Amino acid sequence: MRGVTENELVSAWRDLLGRYHSTWCSLDRELREGHGLGASEFEVLDQLSDACCDKPALRMQELGKSVQLSQSALSRVVARLEADGLVARTLCSDDRRGIYVELTEAGRARHKAAAPTHREVLAANLA
């Protein structure tokens, strides 16, 4: 960036981090209180709900990249969602090391109920 000082860059970075943190905390609080979901859990459901009809499940690796979680953090989130009956995991038939994650009907319903809250928090924090 030409013409931008180091102090301006640092200030912009800190502003971005502040907005991210504030938005994430608001999302986590509102989604937990209203729908029993943490922000990371909602993000997993949201990504899975966007999966195309001809590809209703996502590999854990793809899902991890799209929700910005480490493999171990994603495994914990998916395990919680699976225990709650919101997702199902299956082994890949071609590659036994691959695991697919898919929304259940209960997961679709919970996502549909929580999505307006998610979008309202985003609008309030990012508009």
Describe the structure.
The chain is mainly alpha-helical and about 130 residues long. It has one domain (about 5-125): Arc Repressor Mutant, subunit A, CATH 1.10.10. Helices cover about 65% and strands about 10% of the residues. The protein has five helices and three strands, in the order H-H-E-H-H-E-E-H. The protein has helices at about 5-35, 40-50, 60-65, 70-85, 105-125; strands at about 55-60, 85-90, 100-105. The protein has a three-stranded antiparallel β-sheet with strand order 1-3-2. Helix 1 (about 5-35) packs across helix 5 and helix 2 packs across helix 5. The two termini are about 25 Å apart.
Concise structural overview:
This protein is mainly alpha-helical.
- Portion of residues in beta strands equals 5-15%
Describe the main β-sheet briefly.
Answer: 3 strands, antiparallel
Shape: globular
Helix content: 55-70%
Number of helices: 5
Give keywords.
127 residues; globular; three-stranded antiparallel sheet; mainly alpha; 66% helix
Strand-helix topology:
Layout: H1 6-35, H2 39-49, E1 57-59, H3 60-67, H4 71-83, E2 87-91, E3 99-103, H5 105-126
Antiparallel strand pairs: 1-3, 2-3
Helix pairs in contact: 1-5, 2-5
